[in-house]
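Hi V.,

You were right to ask for the full record rather than a summary. Here it is.
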Amino acid sequence: MYFGLIVISAAVVLTPGAPLGLLTNAVQTLAGVLLPSATVFLLLLCNDKAVLGPWANDRATNIFTSIVIAILVMLSVILTASVLFPAISGVHIFAILVGGSALALLLSLGARIIDARKGTKPQKPVSFTAADRKTWRMAPLDQLPPARLTVLDRTWLVVLRGYLIVAAGLVLVRIILLVLPGH
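Predicted structure:
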């Protein structure tokens, strides 16, 4: 598979008249769109005590990482908007940052309130000692319990899925418009 992708890429690069600048920008934009989703899944994995045991994230790390992910999503939205609307101004960018931050806080608070009312916990609290870090081994994959997602986790996964569909769609529309003659 990897070899095939390299061959296809080499063929595209060696094709006379291929829009290499457009392809490079499209790939970079798509990478910027996909980065937040990969980071969210990494955060979920880093919180799974069945997988990481004593190495799982603590609360402070989760708060910091959540802020970073929210910033990444907003920057990705700005990137997507700037690709679709090249004349976007600083005022619009600031509005996206402020509005995105407010929306993220409201969604987080709402999901936390729902979790508190339901009494949902992400996982049972497990305590580990410093010695556990030296000897920890993850159980075989077939013995791991299924992940238990809270309302907050599910909310952000739905938001992320919607964001990916909209952002990737907008990037594809822009690429198609650039490829068509007269644009």
